[in-house]
Amino acid sequence: MSQEKDNLKNILRGRVFLKVEVDVYGVNIDFRLLKNLDLGGKHQEQVHALFEMDHVNHAEVKLPCDFSDEYGIIYPFHYDPRSSINIRYEDEQFFLYRDSKQLFPIKFGLRPKFYSLKTSDGTQMSTVAMYSYNPLDGGFVNIAYSNECSLKALGLDCLFCNANATKDTYADKEHISWKNPRQIGETVKAAIDLDDLQHVNITGGFVPERREVDYYVDVAEAIQEETGLEDFHGNAVIGAPADLSIIDKYKEAGYTYISTNLEVWDENFFKVICPGKHKECGGRENWLRSLEYEAEVFGRGHVRSSFVAGIEPKARTLEGIEYLAEKGIIGTCGIWCPNPGSKLEGHRTPTPEWHWDLHQKTYTIYKKAGFSYHDVLYTKPAPNDVMSDIFRVEEELLPVYKEVKE
Ligand code: SF4
User: What confidence tens digit (pLDDT) does each residue in 228-254 have?
Assistant: First the structure.
């Protein structure tokens, strides 16, 4: 490798580490600077269709979704007024700062065109599908068919989750409600036509009586009907079913990927952190059985189980990721942000160094298991997480590599 390329790779690794810091600490901005952005016009605004990922609620103020640097790395905008990482506006340009030290200029993400359209029943499409984009892979939509979780009524919702609290804070203000299959089909069609949509993730909280499968099948049919695509590159995020043969129905309906999220690996943590997943779905054993059967039906590298990294000891999460990888299942290590309104609000996630080390070790496990960049990417709801950037940097996928000598 040339010295120039080597130097570039080291700079990019530094930027991805900074992205981990942005995830952990959030980012601060003086709200008065937002007048220099055209949120809801040229620039994309946050839509709270399932989770609030900012570190504090901001019901009265629209905030951006993400921002990018000169290398094309895209950072999440998770607002935190306590963070020393902050955004300023100087000479008609936004810059990222650490305390009072300027780091680099940034650009905020553009609003997709379909956000300004309505479905045939008059629903704003921006409330149906949350869009994110990466120049390498095009657009992804994350669609939460329900914006609540029935586990709350049983007092069994997961301790890190703020789906129901997000609904209470934002649903009326942002006109968010349940989506029907027709609204989803029409929105996906518009996003394909106007915004280079490449991947569809369908998710949502538990529904009473666990009738998810009927809903997912209807959604797949509506997307196929609207778009004319048999394979719409869809990922279905589901809870472990009591009857595993239900998993075949998702495949038959046209989903290419499937996800069943364990959230934590340790059996005792699972009981405490995810009491509803433990009590309502046959316990952790059934979650593991379900994942293994999903790998049989959907194939190696087409099944994901997310871990909310930082709740349990790192060694336990890594044990889970390794165990699943051996079975062809991608365990992911999303950075835990103690969300407002969750039962763990006020707790702290581990340090950026802790999360960085977990990501590096997870990447090594993926390589050993033979998972490709696209295997890992396409089981996810969005293309701009830390692990996707680790692949892009280590495997020299970013377009910026073409600008340096071999
Ligand atoms: S199952 Fe758990 S993580 Fe999923 S929406 Fe319900 S409470 Fe949240």
Answer: 999 999 999 999 999 999 999 999 999
